[in-house]
C-alpha cells in the first residue's frame, strides 16, 4: 500500500516516519524552579497518585502525598526485579535543598507505598551530593522538628526511617547537629525499652557521638 494517504480534498498527509527520541537515562540539570513533569511516564502507572475515593472524604492527602502528586518531587520510583530504585528527573546536585530536603524528611512519616520508599531513598541520596554539608546545615532548625516527629511516631517502620535519616544527617553536618540533639534524645530513650530497637538505637547513638565529636 502507499505510504501517503490521499484525502478527498486532495491534501496529502504523510504518516510519521520518525519516533521522538526518548529521554536518556542520565538526568538533566534542574532549573531553580520546582520541576514539574509535562507528561506522565509509563512507570507512573505503578505509582498511586490518587487517594482512594472511599476514604477521600475522611482522610485528606498528606502534604507530602499532595506535593508528590503535583510533580513537586523530582524523582520517581522505578520497580526493579530485585530491588527498587529512584530515578531523578534532574541531577540531584542541581536540586535546591530548600525546601526539598525538608519535604523528603516530612515524607518519612508516610505509611503508604510509594511515598515510604521515595522519601527515605530521596533523603539519603540528596545528602550524598558533593556540597550537601553547606546546603543542609542552614536547614537544621527546620529538619530537627520533622525528624523528631518521625522518631515519636507510633509506627515502628516510621521510627526506623527517622532513625536512619538522623544518622545520615549527622554524618553530613557533623558537630553542627550537637545543639539540636537534646530535642531528639528523649524519643530515642523511650524506644530503648523496646528490645527490637535497643541494638539499633545503641549503634545510632555511637555514630552520633562519632560524627558530633567530643562535645556530643
UniProtKB/TrEMBL annotation:
Q: Which residues form the signal peptide?
A: none
Q: Where is this region: Disordered?
A: 1-49
Q: Where is composition skewed (Polar residues) in this entry?
A: 1-11, 19-28
Protein origin, superkingdom: Eukaryota
Give start-end positions of Pro residues composition bias. Answer: 29-41
* Protein name, as recorded: PACRL protein
Q: Lineage of the native species? A: Eukaryota, Metazoa, Chordata, Craniata, Vertebrata
Amino acid at each position: 500500500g502507499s505510504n501517503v494517504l490521499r484525502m478527498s480534498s486532495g491534501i496529502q498527509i504523510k504518516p510519521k516516519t520518525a519516533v521522538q527520541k526518548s529521554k536518556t537515562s542520565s538526568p538533566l540539570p534542574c532549573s531553580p524552579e520546582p520541576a514539574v513533569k509535562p507528561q506522565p511516564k509509563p512507570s507512573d502507572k505503578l505509582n498511586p497518585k490518587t487517594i482512594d475515593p472511599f476514604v477521600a472524604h475522611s482522610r485528606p492527602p498528606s502534604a507530602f502525598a499532595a506535593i508528590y502528586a503535583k510533580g513537586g518531587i523530582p524523582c520517581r520510583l522505578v520497580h526493579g526485579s530485585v530491588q527498587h530504585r529512584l530515578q531523578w528527573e534532574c541531577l540531584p546536585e542541581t536540586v535546591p535543598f530548600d525546601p526539598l530536603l525538608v519535604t523528603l524528611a516530612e515524607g518519612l512519616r508516610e505509611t503508604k507505598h510509594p511515598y515510604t520508599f521515595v522519601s527515605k531513598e530521596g533523603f539519603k541520596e540528596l545528602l550524598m551530593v558533593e556540597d550537601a554539608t553547606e546546603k543542609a546545615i542552614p536547614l537544621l532548625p527546620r529538619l530537627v522538628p520533622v525528624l523528631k516527629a518521625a522518631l515519636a511516631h507510633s509506627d515502628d517502620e516510621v521510627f526506623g526511617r527517622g532513625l536512619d535519616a538522623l544518622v545520615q544527617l549527622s554524618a553530613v553536618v557533623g558537630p553542627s547537629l550537637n545543639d539540636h540533639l537534646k530535642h531528639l534524645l528523649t524519643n530515642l530513650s523511650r524506644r530503648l525499652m523496646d528490645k527490637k530497637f535497643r541494638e539499633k538505637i545503641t549503634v545510632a547513638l555511637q555514630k552520633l557521638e562519632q560524627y558530633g565529636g567530643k562535645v556530643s
